[in-house]
TrEMBL record:
Family matches, as Pfam families: DUF454
Tagged with keyword Cell inner membrane: yes
Compartments (UniProt record): Cell inner membrane
InterPro entries listed in its UniProt record: DUF454 (IPR007401)
Organism annotation: Agarivorans aestuarii
Protein name as catalogued: Inner membrane protein
Length: 123
């Protein structure tokens, strides 16, 4: 049952990561990384498929092998976070939701920008 749960949540993460390509409030990278972790616990075949995917594969492999988040991904995420924050300020969003979302967005930005952008030549 646990494998089935991991498999279902992994596919949900792939779906959310794919939607995140087009919607500024959904981050793609964390969902895809979560999906590959869950697939590795439930379906090695799907984990391999995701690791070899033309779009997501390089991102996953850079993260798994080197702990790297590319500068392009960081800049793209930063632009999307700025758009999301701007939309929250512009729209009539309750203050507690602004604080919660702002805290999450800030945490994501801190995490991303404290990761290396290039592979260490010794790894």
């Amino acid at each position: 049952m646990l494998k089935l749960f991991y498999l279902l949540v992994a596919w949900l993460a792939v779906l959310l990561g794919t939607v995140g390509i087009f919607l500024p409030l959904l981050p793609t990278t964390p969902f895809i990384l979560l999906a590959v972790i869950l697939f590795s616990k439930s379906s090695p075949r799907f984990a391999t498929w995701l690791e070899q995917h033309g779009t997501f594969g390089p991102l996953i492999n850079d993260w798994q092998r080197h702990g790297v988040v590319s500068l392009k991904a960081k800049c793209s995420a930063s632009v999307m976070v700025a758009i999301s924050a701007g939309l929250m300020l512009w729209m009539d969003v309750p203050w507690f939701a602004r604080i919660a979302a702002g805290t999450c967005l800030l945490a994501v930005m801190i995490f991303l920008w404290t990761r290396p952008s290039v592979k260490n030549s010794s790894s």
